[in-house]
Design goal:
The chain is an alpha+beta fold. The protein contains 14 helices and eight strands.
Length: 573
């Protein structure tokens, strides 16, 4: 064996025994994480800022006097179809949220972290190999006589006593400990005091310690493992909670975006109608008075201001969806605008209240979490009750001894038979008063009762949420019905005014004001209807969340063993 290999081989053995990482984690690089958003931000187009008005400005050139300065062109904000438009169905948006959302990804680490705590608790029962080597050099003065030389003391007592101990020990799930130890010692004294000398003494000992009252039993000694497993299951349910929250927020934002797009179209139609009325007045060549023109002009500018805010709101919601998706293909700072590809549901759905309650009680993650906490409280109470018992331990050992002036002879003597020895014993310990154990036991009982009361409170909370969610579905449906009727009535009133105008009725200030107000009413009723439709679809999503079936509703499957996030980040194989 080469000298280099002599040094390398022990290092490899040590590394293999104590464990090593396949790959070290990459260093944290915040600049690299910022790269996608930084690059997308450089593609932003700078928008021109329209100057504020300092005097009355008429946007209609037909009535602009030649001596007045031409005003800046009107602005209604960036059109919602300006720039790259990406139409996405809700299912695709949800899939991207499930695959990339950062909050969900952060929450996915906790189940894997808690899984390591389960292994850590279970590792308490792993066997341990030990080796001890000691070299003792004794050089003392000793009182008394040296029988070998018949000399009175004091005399110098010298000895060389190298000792090697090696063996294996293990904690047992029953609460005991077993240890198998081999010891070899070479003894040499000056002056000689034994025959033969020097000599080797070998001892092979099997020692067992087993509690018989306190700390006895598999349930007691595996309590930490069981509680760690429950904690890991709770963290998996907490991960599901984060996933449900983000999916619910995604659906709510998506339908809000559908409503916002509809609002923009309503405002554009309203602005177009008001502009038509304004141009009709301008084309009357002096028949329209100043009040009519200014009144119409005010409504046009108001519509434009509302359209500015409505178009910006569409882009705000698009950015919120991109933030929820956390998809590097569509960074938040990018110019792509996410637009809805799905139409909202407008069909009535009927639900049985008792069936929805039963579904919620079978699927809500809060009840699963609380059941795990109650189970952990049961385990803690069992351990606390066991701690009330006295400490009574059985101790036993059996050993083989060998002695010879040569090491091989000591082995032959040891295993040749006849050198067997053993010990048996009991150790009893009773704490007077035992106040600490009694206090722990009382606390465990109270914590278990508290966990059960919390479970009952969760049942009532879930029942209320399901009931309110069902009522919200019915309420939003009724709102859809009524707002639809109101919109049709308002549209009919505006159509009646239009027919009167088409039949030649004079555009008096009163008639113009009535028509402008009718246009506003139609737009308001259309907004209300769009809001009711979006709220109906959001209410259906909230009902699924209240029942605990939101993931199933969106075709998302969550494995109880490992989530896709854990696999993607290397936490589960």
């Amino acid at each position: 064996m080469s000298k280099k290999l002599r040094y390398v081989l022990p290092c490899l053995l040590i590394a293999g025994y104590f464990g090593c990482r396949a790959t070290d984690p990459a260093p944290f690089d915040p600049r690299a994480m910022q790269r996608v958003e930084r690059e997308a931000a450089t593609q932003d187009e700078k928008q021109r800022m329209t100057p504020l008005p300092t005097t009355l400005q008429n946007p209609f050139p037909d009535t602009q006097s030649s001596g007045q300065k031409q005003p800046a062109p009107p602005t209604t904000g960036m059109a919602i179809d300006a720039g790259p438009i990406i139409k996405m169905p809700l299912q695709e948006v949800v899939q991207r949220v499930v695959a990339n959302n950062q909050d969900v990804r952060v929450a996915a680490y906790q189940p894997a972290i808690d899984q390591t705590r389960v292994i850590e608790a279970d590792a308490r029962f792993d066997p341990t190999f030990f080796t001890n080597f000691q070299y003792e050099r004794r050089n003392n003065w000793s009182a008394g006589s040296n029988n070998n030389f018949n000399q009175p003391g004091p005399f110098r007592d010298e000895a060389w006593l190298p000792t090697l101990q090696t063996g294996i020990k293990q904690q047992l799930e029953s609460g005991g400990q077993v240890q198998l130890q081999f010891q070899s010692q070479r003894q040499e004294y000056f002056p000689d005091r034994f025959n033969p000398e020097p000599f080797y003494q070998n001892d092979l000992t099997l020692q067992v310690t087993q509690p018989l009252l306190r700390d006895f039993g598999t349930q007691i000694n595996r309590a930490r493992i069981d509680i760690a497993k429950n904690t890991q299951k709770i963290s998996l349910l907490e991960f599901r909670k984060t996933l449900e929250e983000n999916i619910e927020k995604t659906e709510e934002t998506y339908w809000a975006l559908v409503e916002a797009v509809r609002d923009v179209k309503i405002l554009e139609e309203q602005l177009e109608g008001t502009n038509r009325l304004a141009h009709i007045l301008l084309n009357k060549h002096g028949e329209a008075d100043r009040q009519q023109i200014s009144q119409t002009n005010e409504r046009v500018e108001t519509r434009r201001a509302e359209l500015v805010r409505a178009r910006a709101h569409v882009r705000d919601l698009s950015d919120q969806i991109k933030q929820l998706m956390s998809d590097p293909e569509y960074p938040v700072t990018g110019q792509a605008v996410i637009m809805p590809a799905d139409e909202p549901l407008r069909d009535p759905l009927l639900f049985d209240f008792d069936e929805q309650i039963e579904t919620a009680f079978n699927n809500r993650f809060e009840l699963g979490e609380q059941q795990m906490r109650i189970d952990s409280a049961d385990v803690a109470a069992l351990v606390a009750k066991n701690n009330l018992l006295p400490q009574l331990n059985f101790q036993g050992s059996i050993g083989l001894e060998g002695l010879d002036n040569h090491l091989d002879g000591a082995f032959r003597s040891q295993f040749g038979g006849g050198n067997l020895s053993y010990t048996l014993g009991l150790q009893l310990e009773i704490p007077i008063g035992n106040r600490q154990a009694r206090a722990i036991d009382q606390r465990a009982i109270l914590q278990r009762a508290q966990a059960i009361s919390q479970y009952h409170a969760n049942l009532e909370q879930i029942a209320m949420e399901v009931k309110q969610a069902l009522r919200d579905v019915q309420t939003t449906w009724n709102e859809m019905v009524q707002t639809g009727r109101a919109r049709y009535a308002a549209s009919d009133a505006l159509e009646a005014l239009q027919q009167r105008e088409d039949n030649g009725e004079a555009l008096t200030p009163e008639f113009v004001d009535r028509k402008l107000r009718a246009q506003e009413v139609v737009a308001d009723r259309a907004h209300a209807e769009a809001s009711a439709i979006a709220n109906y679809n959001i209410a259906l999503s909230k009902l699924e969340r209240a029942k605990g079936t939101l993931l199933r509703y969106n075709n998302v499957e969550l494995s109880q063993e490992a989530t896709p996030y854990m696999q993607s980040v290397g936490l589960a194989k």
